[in-house]
Amino acid sequence: MDELEPRDLAAWEAPELPADFEDRVMARLSEEPLVHAAPMEAPTPASSSRGWVVAGVVTALAAALLLIVGMPTPEATTPEPSPRRVAEARTTTIVELGPGVRAVAQPGATISWETKPEGIAVQQVEGQVDYEVQPGTPMRVQTKAGSVEVTGTRFTVEVHAMSEVFSPRMRTLIPAGLGAAAAVVAVVAVQQGSVEARNEHGAARIEAGSHATMTDRTAPKTESAPAEAVPVAQAPVRTPKASAQDRRKHQATRAKIKAALQKRAEEKAKAALPPEEPAAGANGEETEDPFKGHLDKDYIREAVREDLIPLAIECYDDVLQVDPKFGGRLVLEFDILGDEDVGGIVDDVQPGEGTDPMPPDFVECMSESMMTVTMPPPEGGGIVHVTYPLLFEPE
Amino acid sequence: MTGAVRMQGLVSSRSPAELPREVIERAAARDPAACRALIRRYQRPVGRLLWRLLAPSGLEHLTEDLAQETMVRVFGALPRFDIDGPATVSTWILKIATRLGINELQRRRPKVEPLSAKAERLSGGPTADHEVRRKAIAAAINDAVAELPPDFRAAFLLREYHDLDYAEIAQVLELSPGTVKSRLSRARASLRTSLAQLHAQHQESDHG
């Protein structure tokens, strides 16, 4: 017998693409000039477009200050003009902005860019973007907080509204009292070469290993990285993975699920006879939770596989950019809260027993990423504590 | 016997007719309605092919991005596509998707693997028996496909799920038909072994 059973093959079902797939492709096509059609003979890694929603030209950046990157040299080439593109990174995304200029945008980052005769012009609206600029490549960038000049370097620009700076790492980068009335903060960290940051309030030179912080109200202020800092501390490892809106939405979902579970627990308690003795192990806080363990095993497996492991890979990818040999074991302990009318979320993520030494940014990236996941409503509902060991191995 | 009949219409992605020449030509000129018609016609086979290529390697989250990339490349190259040539539009589109999927599978990437023994410490609930079997079969196919190198994997999927014949698969993968037959034979043998073991287990549980 050479044929396989159709019934068996049919059991391996592939999910449908999202309902708005057609619209997303059309949106991308509107940004793809016909004359610039990509040749199919030389496909490039898909990461160049992964996770980006090209949404047309944004004109609401008029208030942005100017960030200039790159200084032409005699070897510089004149890029072909191209239309402006706007993109929002939903996952870590590598974008070739033009010849010799690469951007690695972290989730939540928004930039737009266009190629002009004088160079590539980028406007960074928010989020963290790591740039690699080949020597002699002219480039212009705008943010709302300052400007920089570079001649071939590797650096990171991170832009946030002051009201949305949640990351402990960002907080450590922003000097106390800096721009109390400021609306926007930008941190420029240089990994190679040097840059000059400037805005209408002043200017500062930033050498490799240092960073500068500036706001729309204050001049760039440079600080050297601590001598003992591990590379990861300077690395383009993102931590503020979720926007304030995402966080609020997630917190609201968590509150709804907990309220729903509490209500059901109370209803169940009313219906049940009072126990003759306390639940095993009870000490006031360890009483049996009537909803623990009610989530379906397949639901949890699917959630881990489809939602959480891809996030783990993204965080790990970031670490490998700094330390290509980094690996180890991370035992994740977390709760999954699920209600059939609300949805499912991950809560209380902690590294568990058996975890190898890990860079704090990596662990934070993992926990913050997982805390933003919203899963489909499970059948039934409940809280399950999950221990999930992950092994990270560089290839 | 055609592939579509063999598959009983359950999973075949190729049975719908090709789009008319006029629609293809208008899509090549970026007529919006024609572009949308082309996307609607081919998004399902492209999405399913990419998902089955990627999911066994834990990369199913890249399916939509690669499907988008496929479509963008299709429209980019459509003006140069020879509609009177040997390849049908659907085979040509599947070729673009296949190459993108294989490229992704061949990228160096870190491994993040659950250590299954402890990861299984999860609570469970009752599930219908037939559903359990269906999922077990799906998992067996997934695992067997995961063991295949990218081009073997693509050959298997194009044959079993997209009904391409040997010549078409050879064209997509730029291999000789003989090589395609050889790879398909090995892929099927691997899968038959996995499924036979699974069915034997089910029969034992039925009688035990």
Mean pLDDT of chain B: 80
Termini Cα gap of chain B: 38 Å
Number of helices, counting only DSSP H or I runs of 4 residues or more of chain B: 10
Envelope shape of chain A: globular
Helix content of chain B: 55-70%
SSE sequence of chain A, one letter per element? HHEEEEEEEEEEHEEEEEHHHEEHEE
Which range best describes the helical content of chain A: under 10%, 10-25%, 25-40%, 40-55%, 55-70% or over 70%? 10-25%
Strand segment count of chain A: 19
Largest sheet properties of chain B:
none
Description:
The complex is a heterodimer of chains A (395) and B (208). Chain A has 395 residues and is α+β, with helices and mostly antiparallel strands. Chain A contains 7 helices and 19 strands. Chain A has helices at residues 6-11, 21-30, 168-173, 231-234, 244-271, 297-322, 360-370; strands at residues 52-54, 65-69, 82-89, 93-98, 101-105, 110-116, 119-133, 139-143, 147-150, 153-161, 184-192, 194-199, 202-207, 210-215, 221-224, 328-339, 343-351, 374-375, 381-393. In chain A, the strands form 3 sheets. In chain A, strands 1, 2, 3, 4, 5, 6, 7, 8, 10, 11, 14 and 15 form a 12-stranded mixed β-sheet that branches. Chain A has a 4-stranded antiparallel β-sheet with strand order 18-17-16-19. In chain A, a hairpin with a 2-residue loop joins strand 4 and strand 5 (101-105). In chain A, helix 6 packs antiparallel against helix 7. Chain A starts with 5 loop residues before the first helix and ends with a strand. The model of chain A is unreliable at 34-78, 225-242 and 275-291 (pLDDT under 50). With 208 residues, chain B is mostly helical. Chain B has 10 helices and 1 strand, in the order αααααβααααα. Chain B has helices spanning 3-6, 21-28, 32-54, 63-77, 89-106, 116-119, 129-146, 150-160, 166-173, 177-207; one strand at residues 111-114. In chain B, helix 3 packs across helix 4 (63-77). Mean pLDDT of chain B is 80; it is low at 1-15 and 115-127. Classes of the chains: A alpha+beta (395), B mainly alpha (208). Chains A and B meet through helix 1, helix 2, helix 6 and strand 19 of A and helix 3, helix 4, helix 5, strand 1 and helix 7 of B.
